[in-house]
Specification:
Layout (H helix, E strand, L loop, with lengths): L2 E4 L22 H9 L7 E4 L9 H13 L3 E4 L11 H10 L5 E3 L5 E3 L2 E5 L12 H20 L4 E5 L5 E2 L2 E2 L1 H10 L1 E6 L13 E3 L2 E5 L10 E4 L1
Parallel strand pairs: 1-2, 2-3, 3-4, 6-7, 7-10, 10-12
Antiparallel strand pairs: 1-13, 5-6, 8-9, 11-12
């Protein structure tokens, strides 16, 4: 049994959104994911850090979720900026139940326990990297609230945070999120979102005492990384 992480699957099994337009690395990437997940067991847990499906609604995303459901182990998902199918977590949960999707759970205003560890997280936001508008601030404030709800729910367990947007990227630092990490004693943060040329600005390693890992699928060669035994 082990805890894994990966992000940005960008599946389009029910829509016409081929990812190989972004380069040869993305050719047959669904098969690459299937092959890498085959090494996992049904006792393993994988957190998928957003951008799961290009489906514009749950109906269009159905084949993608069925694909994820068939992968070994339990999957915990969170929202990414391209998850247009997402309206509310309740609607997604009902959709999963109606379609026999039993291995996927949603990380949203909650946390999950893995042994003595807590799986916490939310989407996050690049506030200063966006427009810095009032609208962006509202989004950022909401994400901070969701993250703190998740961290509080963890109690005194060891806390591992999973985001879509990395809180440190190049010269950008999201001090608001990092302050919450400090406040609640977070040990590690895994995030995705970054691809292509942006990978040159990725930060991995310790910052303010917290381990940071990038888990975008193409960065990981479509193979989830092990976070905990």
């Amino acid at each position: 049994m082990a805890l894994y992480a990966i992000g940005d699957l960008h599946l389009s099994l029910g829509t016409n959104k081929p990812m190989d337009i972004f380069g040869p690395k993305w050719e047959n990437h669904a098969e690459k994911l299937k092959s890498s997940f085959s090494a996992l067991s049904d006792d393993d847990v994988t957190v998928i850090c957003g951008d799961l499906s290009w489906g514009m609604d749950l109906r269009e995303a159905r084949e993608d979720f069925l694909f994820i459901n068939r992968l070994p182990g339990r999957k915990i998902i969170l929202k990414g900026n391209h998850d247009y199918w997402w309206s509310t977590s309740t609607k997604a949960k009902n959709f999963f139940e109606d379609n026999g999707i039993t291995t996927i759970e949603i990380l949203n205003n909650n946390c999950f326990f893995y042994g003595d560890a807590a799986i916490c997280g939310t989407r996050g936001w690049f506030f200063e990297e966006e427009t810095g508008s009032v609208h962006d601030k509202k989004i950022m404030d909401r994400e901070l609230m969701r993250l703190e709800v998740s961290l509080k729910a963890a109690g005194d367990r060891s806390k591992y945070v999973f985001l879509h947007y990395p809180p440190k990227y190049g010269a950008y630092v999201c001090s608001e999120i990092l302050d919450l990490f400090d406040k609640y004693g977070v040990l590690m943060c895994c995030a995705g979102h970054i691809h292509g040329k942006g990978l040159h600005n990725v930060f991995e390693g310790k910052y303010r005492g917290i381990e940071h890992r990038l888990v975008s699928a193409d960065y990981l060669n479509f193979s989830p990384i092990r976070v905990l035994e």
